[in-house]
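This entry is listed below:
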Amino acid sequence: MKHPRTSASRRRTTVMLPERIERAIFLVRGERVMVDSDLATLYGVRTKALVQAVKRNAGRFPPDFVFQLGKEDLSRLRSQFVTSNKSLGRGGRRYLPFAFTEQGVAMLSSVLRSERAVKVNVEIMRTFVRLRRILASHADLARKLAELEEKYDGRFRTVFRAIRELMAPPLVPEKRPIGFRISGGR
């Protein structure tokens, strides 16, 4: 007999899946990628098992499908998501994470053959397509705005400037260090 909380948590997972997937897609080296630990969580497997499956099938994962993050990449990602103290050298991961591009995620479906992996892969592919459409419509909107700006004279310049400011991504404020600063030469 199944535990009632298990089936409820599965339902919650499938309902929240698109939002969870969107939050797990990051921009690294100019590519939209998903990190191995996030994929493992979505697939319901351990990160170590996912990475081992990829290594056993290395021929299916060329460098444009999956690559290992460098320490610089990881520090840039920290501004996009919260990492625990256990990452790298403090009792958790002992290696740098792997990043999977959209093609790498698609290839994972041929390596991880569970029913859940198939369903999750379908949702991930749909999310990547949805993100591409959003980016394309944003670029199309910017192009149309530029055409309108050229068409009309300077009277609307401030209106166009305000629209461009609304379209720009929000600036991430620089985080201040926590603690006290001692002024002077101490």
About this structure: Residues 115-151 form the longest helix (37 residues). The radius of gyration is 22 Å.
